[in-house]
Amino acid sequence: MAEGGYNATLCNVDFEDSIESHFQDTVSGGAFVNNERLVRVLVENAPGRILKLEEDGALFYRTSDGKIDQRAFGRQSHKRTCYSGDRTGGEIMATLIDLLRASNVRFIKGAAVDFLLDGNKVTGVAAFDPEGAKFFLIRSKAVILTTGGGCRIYKITTNSFQGTGDGFAIGYRAGAELIDMEFIQFHPTGMVFPDSAKGILVTEAVRAEGGILLNSLDERFMEKYAPDRMELAGRDVVSRAIYREIRAGRSTPHNGVYLSLKHLDPDFIEQRLPQTVEQFRDLSGVDITKELMEVSPTAHHIMGGLRISEKTETNLKGLFAAGEVTGGIHGANRLGGNALADLQVFGYIAGHSAAHSSFESSLGKVHDKQITQIHRAIISPLQPKQDGKRPSQIRHELEELMWANVGILRTKEKLTHALKDIQRLKSTPLEIGNHNTTFAYEQLEALQVRNMLIVSEIIIKAALFREESRGAHFREDFPETNPSWRKNIIISKEKIHTVPVVVF
Ligand SMILES: Cc1cc2nc3c(=O)[nH]c(=O)nc-3n(C[C@H](O)[C@H](O)[C@H](O)COP(=O)(O)OP(=O)(O)OC[C@H]3O[C@@H](n4cnc5c(N)ncnc54)[C@H](O)[C@@H]3O)c2cc1C
Q1: Structural domain tally of the chain?
Q2: Are residues 217 and 312 in the same domain?
Q3: What is the SS3 string spanning 129-165?
Q4: How far is the CA of 324 from the centre of ligand 1 (A)?
Q5: pLDDT tens digit string along 61-81?
């Protein structure tokens, strides 16, 4: 789904760019709570990984002299975002899938449900295959967790239906430490109509290519909120600005603001933003080369996640993690284009670390006691029964309450209210339909909802704990950034506490 691009200091377009500048942009964009050692690994390795992707067949847009083209993205001092139109993620995935097909990697279909544990060591995964409605176990010497983000806990989101945050919850249940879970990125520009398209991403590339934001009074309101960077200020800043314009009643007919490209040449728009042209034409009947888009913020990215080392190790032996399920790299606010770089850099490292660790270890034990426990806690509650609420009902209530209470502007009152509601939902018995063709999918949804409730609870606890505003976390009752809060919140099954920021 990734559209706009991949950040790497290649200096193909902007000769003034440097690794140091990418580092500084990432750390200041992250409001100075990033793990700076991880950021250093990211910025130093991002160029090498994109060049390897190109060598493996990925096609990126090019400059007239045949180098990978780069454009300016939000809150960055230089043009360093490499792209393939507005379909960058698809191009990268297609390349990687081709490589996998040509390899001897064996694929096993199913959703990971929980880790198998031998003390502090992850010895495998319990999984569920909805197609055969069967549970199975995979034993392994090393596991890499790459289940992505979890913004499906919000009513309005850019995330796919799979973005239910399973990995955060699976890790948490097994005793993994999570970092910075209070930092949720609301992307400034999501579609607002029709209802079925609400939340779908309108890529930052639109603003990178010159798109401007207007309120219903035709005012370019970013002049008021971020006069220097305007529409290309940090996503946290632009989202709050849009939210405030809407709250002040200067909104569009569908309760958003306008995003305009009308001052640009239609051919240029078609060439640079083909997917966005198609998306608006097909979903809402708007021709963005001539008409205004209506947009508003949408839940996009969880900056927090499993706490990892530079080698992607977690605090659990044998468990490595990479991508959006990890935390610490992006601090309190991720820069557009840094996630794709993060996946390539840390995905590569995770592969090496896991392979290395499995050469050195033997298969761990699988304990009967744990299997019984998985049965009792996970499988038994999924048998058909008629009392309680359907998983889809609980999911719907959760999405509404997270959007209303744990969104862009937060208060202790709203967060506490949400936490109570989540506890109520957690104790609501699940109703699962009788055996039929959709039965196994309802079981799968029940497993996802169980994870979504845990992830939401973790986010709220961390958001209550951080009594200041920083990056994407804005507390109306603590509106200032407090220098003494320049620290990370670590949350695990046992406790919640703070640790000093890792500086380079
Ligand atoms: C619409 C959109 C546009 C974006 N555009 C950009 C961009 O231009 N540039 C950028 O840098 N970033 C962008 N991002 C962010 C970036 O794409 C994500 O952060 C990134 O793709 C996450 O990659 P990942 O590999 O960690 O997880 P994902 O790509 O989300 O992959 C996770 C995989 O795990 C699977 N999974 C989940 N749970 C389970 C389970 N229990 N068992 C088994 N499998 C499971 C999922 O099905 C999925 O295949 C965008 C995000 C979105 C949503």
Answers
A1: 3
A2: no
A3: ECCCCEEEEEECCCEEECCCCCHHHCCCECCCCCCCC
A4: 7
A5: 999 999 999 998 888 999 999
Cβ of residue 14 lying under 6 Å from some atom of ligand 1: no
Q: Is 171 touching ligand 1 by the criterion CB < 6 Å?
A: no
Q: Is residue 148 within 6 Å of ligand 1 at its C-beta?
A: yes
Is 417 one of the annotated active-site residues of the chain?
A: no
- Beta strands at 134-139 and 111-118: parallel, antiparallel or unpaired: unpaired
Give yes or no: residues 273 and 199 share one domain. yes
Residues 123 and 117: beta-carbon distance below 8 Å: yes
If asked whether residues 98 and 199 sit together in one domain, one would say: no
Domain-embedded: residue 387: yes
Nearest CA to ligand 1 atom 53: 159
* 264 and 342 together in one domain: no
* 62 part of the active site: no
Among residues 80, 187, 300, 334, which one is catalytic?
A: 187
257 shares its domain with 337: no
User: Which of 162, 201, 207, 334 to mutate for ligand 1's pocket (most ligand atoms within 8 Å of CB)?
Assistant: 162
With CA atoms as reference, report the closest residue to 170 among 143, 142, 140, 131.
143
Whether pLDDT at 434 is above 70: no
Query: Is the CB of residue 202 below 6 angstroms from any atom belonging to ligand 1?
Result: no
Q: Which of 207, 330, 334, 470 is catalytic?
A: 207
Q: Are residues 22 and 74 in the same domain?
A: yes
8 A C-beta contact, residue 417 and residue 459? no
Task: Determine the 3-state secondary structure of 119 from DSSP.
Answer: coil
Task: List the domain range (segments joined by +) for residue 470.
Answer: 369-500
What are the pLDDT digits (tens) for 380-423? 878 777 778 999 999 999 999 999 999 999 999 999 999 999 99
